[in-house]
Amino acid sequence: MKENPSVTIMIVDDSDAFRETLERRFARNRFDPQTPYRTITAASAAEAIEKISAWDGPIDAFLVDIRMESDHAGITLIEYIRRKERFRSSPIVVITGQPGEYSEQRIEREHLIHGYIDKSDDVDVVERVRSIVAQHRIARRGEQARLRDDVERLMGVCPAMQRLYEQVENCSRTEHPVIYIDGETGTGKTLIAEYFHNLAGHGGPFIDYNCSSPVGADENILKSILFGSRKGFLAADHRGNEGLIAQAEGGTLFLDEFQNVSADVQAMLIKVIESREYRSLGSEETRRCNVNFLLAGNRNIEELVRGGAIREDFYFRILDVLKVPPLRRRREDIPAFINRFLQESNRRLHKYVSISASAVARMEDYDWPGNVRQLKNVVERAVLHSRGFEITEADLRLGGGNAHGGFGYTETGREGTGGEGGGGDFMTDLAALIDRYADQNRDIINSKNPKDRGVFVDFDAYRRLLPRMVMEATGGNKKATAQLLGLTIEQLATLIKSTGK
After folding, report:
1. Which pLDDT tens digit goes with each residue over 243-288?
2. From CA 392, how far away is CA 320, in angstroms rounded?
3. Angle ∠(49,109,199) on CA atoms, nearest 5
4. What is the pLDDT of residues 163-204, one digit of tens each?
5. Which of 71, 181, 194, 475 has its CA 20 to 30 A from that of 253?
């Protein structure tokens, strides 16, 4: 990752002459002319706090006079900086002309500072700060390398993913970007959002909210969830609500299934993105917003804009679109995923199961409509139900999909309708699923209670059972489930709702 070469230093000291001298020295930067220094100055702790709260960019180091307008002003400022999530690990160098009560050891121990300078000593302040910032950046690069290793282990290392990681890393260097993450269900959009958040390095919280929740249909409730509300403003909210934007202060707010957010709520978010200010519902207080907004959906954003699900003026404010490729387009990562999920399942289930080369080859050749999530589910299920020490092709439950046609097709390429005479492989897999459910519910089948036995002969009960079986077979992929059942997504949703899924 390329690093921003500029260094921003905040100097807080009540001596005008000292501040101006340091400003000139930092501006000259005789150590490295290629690294420009810019300074933010304040003559008091109160002025510094005001400037910090209004400053949206990074601050690489703080120089704080320990004694200013009051004996404890410097300590108060240091405590304030440490409470700010995005500056929690930033280097702080204490400068003082009156060492004594606040010794270097005490300050370092109690307030986690990175340096202590006595003005009476012959110390090159600029060189000291330059050295501290350089060490901090080296440590940060090591942390970024660790984060890259972690995301590669979780998401894969193929060329398509390497390009995506680089795109995420570039975006993370931008202040307060609005990013859209586009990817099918189960591809790992949340992991990419977390990778961005960790790289941004502000230290604030990562707040994840799925906008497909039923409350998303109620604009006022969703507004309250996002922006907060005054106590008693909503009839159903007697205690008030802080709001997700406030909770994500100094960090990242990740809104998944963003296409479910209404145009009115999107307009309110546009104002927050532009002004970095907002008000809770029913409140007159204006609050600052220091939050990165990450949005996600499992449909192409241009299609969502054309269809009216996302406002065009909102789309124009999105800095970049991160497209997470489906697993079928990065098959070279499948063996590594299989190995990781196999190890995790063995450890959790206290087993020692391996997998045959033919089973791996079959999984590499499969289209995985449920993506990595489905692959993990298939491996875990195979380990759980394995009776020997090796998983074979016969142990895999791939749910009626084919190698390259996706769900709804047999391995010979014929479209499966789910009816008689349709794709034979689908019917075989479905029969196997029914057999498995029968095995798991053998006590019900053998029950002497007619109501219990009726679950497998009563049509309505079978109708309730079928969507669950097919949904499991597809790893939770609703689109694939609907195709297998010969339904639209809307019809499937209605069926699931009516059967109490």
Report:
1. 899 999 888 999 999 988 889 999 999 999 998 899 888 888 888 8
2. 43
3. 60
4. 999 999 989 888 788 999 999 988 999 999 999 998 887 667
5. 475
Q: DSSP label at 298?
A: S
The token pair at 56 is 């949206």
Q: What is the mean pLDDT of residues 214-236?
A: 71
Q: List, in sequence order, the alpha helices (H) in 231-353.
A: 244-247, 263-275, 301-306, 312-315, 334-349
- DSSP states of 197-223: HHHH-----EEEEETTSGGGGSHHHHH
- Dihedral Cα 316, 245, 300, 172, nearest 10 deg: 80
pLDDT at residue 311 above 90? yes
446/344 Cα distance (integer angstroms): 36
Measured distance CA(156)–CA(327) in Å, rounded: 10
Cα separation, 78 vs 115, in Å, equals 13
Instruction: Name all contacts of 112-116 with Cβ < 8 Å and 24+ positions apart.
Output: 112/82, 113/78, 114/61, 115/91
Comparing CA positions, the residue from 57, 46, 48, 53 lying closest to residue 19 is: 48
Neighbouring residues of 184: CB distance < 8 A, sequence distance ≥ 6 = 298, 324, 326, 369, 371
Mean pLDDT over each residue of the chain, to the nearest integer: 78
Beta-strand pair 178-182/354-355 = unpaired
CA distance 304 to 145: 35
Please give the Cα distance from 134 to 7 (Å, whole number). 10
DSSP summary character for residue 253: E
Distance, in Å, from the CA atom of 208 to the CA atom of 181, rounded to the nearest integer, reads: 13
- Tally Cβ neighbours within 10 Å of residue 445: 14
Q: DSSP code of 9? A: E
Measured CA to CA, the distance from residue 293 to residue 420 in angstroms comes to 49
Phi first, then psi: what are they for 14, rounded to 5°?
-85, 0
Q: Which are the contacts of 262, defined by CB distance < 8 A and separation ≥ 6?
A: 219, 222
Calculate helix-pair angle for 73-83, 45-54, nearest 10 degrees: 20
Q: How far is CA 491 from the centre of its chain?
A: 31
Complete domains list, the chain, with CATH: 7-139 (3.40.50.2300), 159-325 (3.40.50.300), 326-398 (1.10.8.60), 416-501 (no CATH)
Q: What is the DSSP string of 364-391?
A: HTS--TTHHHHHHHHHHHHHHH--SSEE
Beta-bridged to residue 145, according to DSSP, are none
On whether the CB atoms of residues 379 and 335 are closer than 8 A, the answer is: no
Count the neighbouring beta carbons within 10 Å of the beta carbon of residue 18: 17
8 Å CB contact between 333 and 327: yes
C-alpha–C-alpha distance, residues 30 and 44, integer Å: 28
Phi, psi of 305 (to 5 degrees): -70, -45
